[in-house]
Write a structure and sequence with these properties.
Blueprint: H1 3-14, E1 19-23, H2 31-40, E2 45-49, H3 55-62, E3 69-73, H4 78-87, E4 91-93, H5 99-107, E5 112-113, E6 115-116, H6 119-127, E7 132-135, H7 143-151, E8 158-161, H8 170-174, E9 182-184, H9 190-195, H10 198-209
Helix pairs in contact: 2-3, 2-10, 4-5
The chain binds 3-phosphoglyceric acid (3PG).
């Protein structure tokens, strides 16, 4: 898939809801009820980070949940791309971008939300056809004011800020014209997952889904 088409797909996925949950899941048994709760709460696009041994199995389980679009996060290498694709991921997310990673996503038809934190990083990705990016690490890179400033000269690049986003600051990002959605882990707290408290997670998702943008 060429980057332009892939980036349009990434935009469409980001546009589904104001928040993309960033999920760190240790137990594959949590995958189905977790995805079910988030989708029921109004957050269909889900990012499962490849940071736990269970992540690929979690992606496979979640890919079967009706109404969800499951992506693989923390893609760092071409091998990560192949594994994510094989597990059934519908999109990928990376904290930054390398030529090898972009090549692998394009060769394997995996729409990618590549990370950028500066104007130059964003411009390099735009040159290659990517106009829907992850702004990472969002808060540590200057937060909403920094992203607003990047948007002034390059408004055609749209972002999903991620990293330090919460209910406290999500509105500041979502109010920006160059923000489509934001990513965050707060909608799936580890203690609620371990407790199997899917109702609480659905309530957090519903609250996040109602954020204005
Ligand atoms: C991550 O890489 O874990 C994401 O950036 C999520 O960050 P958060 O936990 O601050 O939402």
């Amino acid at each position: 898939m060429i980057a332009l088409a892939a980036s349009q797909k990434a935009f469409d996925i980001c546009n589904l809801a104001p928040i993309v949950p960033v999920l760190v899941v240790e137990d594959p048994a949590h995958a189905a009820p977790l995805a079910g709760a988030l989708v029921a709460g109004g957050l269909p696009a889900l990012e499962v980070t490849l940071r736990t041994p269970a992540a690929l199995e979690v992606i496979s389980e979640m890919a079967r949940v009706a109404g969800g679009v499951v992506g693989a996060g923390t893609l760092l290498t071409p091998d990560d791309v192949l594994a994510a694709k094989e597990a059934g991921a519908g999109f990928g997310v990376s904290p930054g971008a390398t030529d090898r990673l972009l090549d692998a996503c394009e060769a394997n038809d995996l729409p990618l939300l590549p990370g950028a934190a500066t104007a130059s990083e964003a411009m390099l990705l735009l040159e290659r056809g990517y106009s829907m990016l992850k702004f990472f690490p969002a808060e540590a890179s200057g937060g909403a004011p920094a992203l607003k400033a990047i948007g002034a000269p390059i408004p055609q690049i749209k972002f999903c800020p991620t990293g330090g986003v919460s209910m406290k600051n999500a509105r500041d990002y979502l109010a920006l014209p160059n923000v489509v959605c934001a990513g965050g882990s707060w909608v799936a707290p580890k203690d609620r997952m371990v407790a199997g408290d899917w109702e609480a997670i659905e309530a957090l998702a519903r609250e996040a889904a109602q954020l204005p943008r």
